[in-house]
Amino acid sequence: MDSKKRREDILLKLIENNGPIKGTDFAKVYGVTRQIIVKDIAILRARGNKIIATPDGYIIAKEENRVKSIIAVSHDSDSIREELEIVIKYGGIIEDVIVEHPMYGEIKAMLMIKNLNDINNFVDKYKNNHAKPLSVLTNGVHIHTISADDEVNMDLIKKELKDKGFVVS
């Protein structure tokens, strides 16, 4: 299969699939390296396809009528689960995490955490890999893009995050 056909097939699989697909899985299917898949995804993005890389694999960004808000928060590593659970409790999605590094500028990672299973997977990866969250670079301060079904749920998310002391004033 030539590279053009492979990219068309990758795009079709992403459109048809409701969940994320790992680059390594694509690489196995097409008998290429993961780096070739990364290049294919970059080319597909350059052509205007809204492909997002999440910790669980690639997905197509769905155009939805959701309310979005950017919220600055601060907490230690032990409070990650609590913060994320507050957001999903009201139907929110934690789309990303952003830190403002003094030397490198903005560092952003896509999360797309939308349910308890996503939180469990995220926390398990975090613990099993002995990783540190991006917020360790900024003494716990970080920013999330959060989306919700409506303003009412977004207000509930913001209120509880503020009441728990997570929101940076």
UniProtKB/TrEMBL annotation:
Domain 3H: 71-166
Stretches assigned to the Helix-turn-helix type domain: 6-59
Gene3D superfamilies from the UniProt entry: 3H domain, Winged helix-like DNA-binding domain superfamily/Winged helix DNA-binding domain
Pfam families for the chain: 3H, HTH_11
PANTHER family from the UniProt entry: TRANSCRIPTION REPRESSOR NIAR-RELATED
The name this protein goes by in its record: Transcription repressor NadR
Taxon lineage: Bacteria, Bacillati, Bacillota, Clostridia, Eubacteriales
